[in-house]
Task: structure prediction
Amino acid sequence: MNKNLPAGRRKSGMKPRTTDSNGLSMQYQESVRTEILQHLAAPGSHVSIESVANSIGIRVRTLQRKLSGCGATFRALVDECRHEKALEMLDDGRFSIGEIGQRLGYSDPAHFARAFRRWSRRAPSDFLNRGKARTN
Result:
């Protein structure tokens, strides 16, 4: 283990940073997205900023500050990841809208449907039917 790296980088095994023109780490944002997707993939897992920060090995405020430096928020990243996973599951065609909503952490299918309409301007059933048509 390289002791010259900050503790959070040592624990998570992140690669050396690449920076954009503002000196901000875009790779850091991608590593946070990866953690969020891993939390979403775990059955019964709840995605929270606390759980992701703990997985990466940093404090919540540090995570917020670093994401802010990249022009992102934790909530926006969770939203993007949920949208990505929802599209994958709808395309698969094996899951109902209620199951997808539950797997993504929504307490009610209506909440998932509302979020999905906000993301794509279409109902999730439009995508679900398209995925089922391909599997038949």
About this structure: Residues 35 and 52 are 6 Å apart (CA to CA). The chain has eight helices and no strands. Residues 1-72 form one domain. Confidence is low (pLDDT under 50) at residues 1-24.
